[in-house]
Backbone:
């Protein structure tokens, strides 16, 4: 049986911000390009591929294409050769030809430098995946001999959160892959925060845009717990518990926040 590298959820070498020293080198030639098989293990198995380069006894993949597969937003500065990867509430900053990765206010050091060519920044696996797994709602397994990456996301059943402004208030549409009965959905208010607990819910927290002001919703903070998904909505004003109503369909949970009477 071919050995697999099971990536553990642990922090790499962390450096306090004030000790950070920028390191740059010249690009190193990337060797012959192969293809990395990427297999998503969900309800239905999906297989895609990524370009794969070998350099300095390490395997590299293009960061922007990896981000696209993980459905993460990115911002790329081609002049500075820096990219920001957005995963949920976290910003992950990667620089070309540099082993340091900045996650929010923390700095981590990869065992080798990132690399760079005309297509953009390349990151080493499995060390980069080991780092971002701390912020990704899933689990990675990399098999270097078979050049295959397995991404485990079993059980995801909440696909998207949409906030809409209506005439008489704000509607939160929680899109799901199965029906959740109303006894499994609980709401509560505290200090201008609305909490929606969905028992049995599983959510990829990296797919939620957290700072989207629509209606009275200022911010969304998702949290995946062992038995449920908790969605926290920061509100721009106080509302009464009686102004909240919850309904459901086969593929949505609808949370209505009534802030004014329709004319």
Residues:
């Amino acid at each position: 049986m071919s050995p697999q590298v099971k990536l553990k959820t642990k922090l790499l070498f962390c450096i306090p911000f004030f000790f950070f020293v920028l390191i740059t080198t010249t690009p190193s030639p990337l060797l012959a390009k192969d293809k990395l098989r990427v297999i998503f293990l969900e309800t239905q198995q999906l297989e895609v591929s990524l370009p794969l380069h070998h350099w300095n006894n390490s395997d590299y993949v293009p960061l922007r294409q990896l981000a696209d597969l993980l459905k993460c937003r990115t911002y790329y500065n081609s002049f500075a050769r820096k990219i920001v990867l957005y995963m949920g509430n976290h910003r992950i900053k990667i620089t070309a030809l540099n082993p340091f990765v900045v996650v929010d206010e923390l700095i981590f050091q990869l065992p080798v430098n990132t690399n760079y060519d005309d297509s953009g920044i390349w990151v080493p696996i499995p060390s980069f995946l080991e780092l971002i797994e701390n912020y990704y709602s899933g689990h990675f397994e990399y098999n270097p001999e078979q050049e295959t990456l397995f991404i485990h996301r079993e059980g995801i059943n909440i696909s998207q959160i949409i906030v809409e402004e209506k005439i008489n208030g704000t509607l939160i549409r929680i899109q799901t892959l199965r029906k959740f009965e109303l006894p499994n959905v609980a709401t509560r208010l505290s200090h201008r925060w609305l909490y929606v607990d969905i028992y049995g819910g599983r959510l990829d927290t990296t797919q939620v845009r957290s700072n989207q002001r629509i209606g009275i919703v200022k911010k969304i903070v998702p949290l995946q717990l062992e038995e449920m998904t908790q969605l926290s909505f920061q509100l721009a004003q106080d509302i009464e518990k009686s102004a909240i109503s919850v309904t459901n369909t086969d593929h949505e949970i609808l949370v209505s926040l009534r802030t004014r009477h329709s004319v």
Residues 63-69 form the longest helix (7 residues). The radius of gyration is 21 Å. The longest strand covers residues 46-55. Residues 35-153 form a domain with the Copper Amine Oxidase; Chain A, domain 1 fold (CATH 3.30.457.10).
